[in-house]
Specification:
Length: 285
């Protein structure tokens, strides 16, 4: 199918598995991606948890989670596998004083995920801007990160960035998507030089040159935390060497597949992102 001058590839299991990176039998944890997550705020501790677990369940070798110092103890009690570290905050949100430590860690990272439960403030904007200016690796911007950038789109130009908006976030950031959601996402991607993953029924993924349409997923996934899992998954795939548009497409397919598996066994009303994390390992093989 051709859309807006692009060939649209329809995602299925065979195509998604072909994108999934091979695991080197001689590899060690440093070979499978070092992922930095800057997520969470007071009252939104679940977002950081789900993003970190999404990355770990998708094969990331090392996950580093930076959170406001007031929620550090909560995250440390909930999570065993990531390296969790506290950062300076103001009123429960990351502050500009967190920037020096973040910049110190950035050069060692293979991917960054920022925005899940981050909150909106001058401090979180300072952190986001510093990451986008200084990261030499791909950056996934989700949720509040997208909202923060709505008035600062030019920061994204020339940066290797994946934006993962749902319809409302896309409308605030770029404008109401038209009836052809792929064309709307492609316009945004081309203009800013990014990858746009526009969530919704049949999520679309494009960098303006290559395009994928995903058919997995169901309304049971419309619950807080689901998108945070996806952001972490994409970060993990980036860290393992996938191209940004491929990481986004692969993540979208398996995220939706996990939701479909949960719906089959639990039903759409009661399924949770926690359940999706549990079934992911069985799908990625």
């Amino acid at each position: 199918m051709i859309c807006d001058g692009m060939k649209v590839l329809e995602l299925d299991r065979e195509r998604a598995l072909a994108l999934l990176p091979e695991r080197d039998p001689n590899g060690h944890k440093g070979d499978f991606g070092k992922i930095l997550l800057l997520c969470g705020s007071r009252g939104f501790t679940g977002a950081a948890y789900f993003a970190a677990m999404g990355a770990l369940r998708t094969g990331a070798g090392l996950v580093y989670l930076g959170v406001p110092e007031s929620i550090y103890a909560i995250e440390a009690a909930k999570l065993n596998e990531p390296v969790i570290f506290p950062l300076p905050e103001e009123n429960g949100l990351l502050s500009a004083e967190a920037v020096p430590e973040i910049l110190m860690r950035l050069p060692q990272m293979d991917a960054v995920v920022i925005g899940c439960g981050l909150g909106k403030s001058p401090g979180t904007m300072a952190v986001l801007e510093a990451v986008l200016h200084h990261a030499q690796c791909p950056v996934v911007v989700d949720a509040d990160g997208i909202n923060l950038l709505s008035a600062h789109k030019d920061i994204l130009r020339g940066r290797t960035t994946i934006l993962t908006p749902h319809g409302g976030e896309f409308a605030r950031f770029w404008g109401e998507p038209g009836p052809d959601r792929m064309a709307s996402a492609a316009e945004c991607a081309r203009e800013l030089g990014i990858v746009c993953l526009l969530k919704g029924h049949e999520t679309v993924i494009t960098d303006g040159k290559t395009a994928y349409r995903n058919h997995t997923g169901n309304p049971g996934m419309a619950v807080g935390g689901s998108g945070d899992v996806l952001a972490g998954m994409i970060g993990a795939l980036l860290g393992q060497g996938l191209l940004p548009v491929e990481a986004a497409a692969c993540g979208a397919f398996f995220h939706g597949s996990a939701g479909d598996e949960c719906a089959r066994h639990l039903g759409q009303y009661g399924m949770l992102p926690t359940d999706m994390l549990e079934v992911l390992p069985r799908l990625l093989k």
